[in-house]
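SEQUENCE-TO-STRUCTURE ENTRY
===========================

Backbone structure tokens: a row of integers, each naming the local backbone shape at its residue.

Task: work out the structure tokens from the sequence, keeping to the layout shown below.
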Amino acid sequence: MRRDQLEHAIRTACQIIGAEEVIVVGSQAILGSLTEDRLPAAATMSLEVDILPIAADEDTTAALADQIEGVAGEWSPFEEMHGFSIDGVSLVTAALPDGWRDRLVKVQSDNTAAIGGQPRFTGWCLERHDLCVAKLVALREKDTNFVAALIDAGLVDPRVIAKRLGHLDERHGAAAERAQGWLASSL
């Protein structure tokens, strides 16, 4: 995936749910920090953008996520036309460390503006180390490949990831321990 596709996904998701801002929580959030030409191939392989709507409560967030999924999700005409899909997700989808909202990376450009230039929609992407924490808590092969590629390319600091793994909600304790183990064995 490319940065311009991320920007298109942000604009589309905002238009679908009638919001000016959304949060990008999946692997493509890395494109908020780095462009595809600086990233290893393993970091841009996914052809789906995980979008978290910003809402007052979890029920509203889930309903908005369903709207996004229904219009632009996997197997949709949107995916067929653009070659990528947009998955609406809820806050329970990702395990994130304390302070993650304070580190979000703003994505806004001409590609995030509606036709005519206004309004300009904003995508708030997970900061790269917080993204790696979320990926390692999931600990699927595609997630560890993603994190390993960023570490190998020198684009994230494993010490920062390890520290932030220690700042997860206690309900993620077992997953954080497994992630710490993977991180220690891969260094």
The radius of gyration is 16 Å.
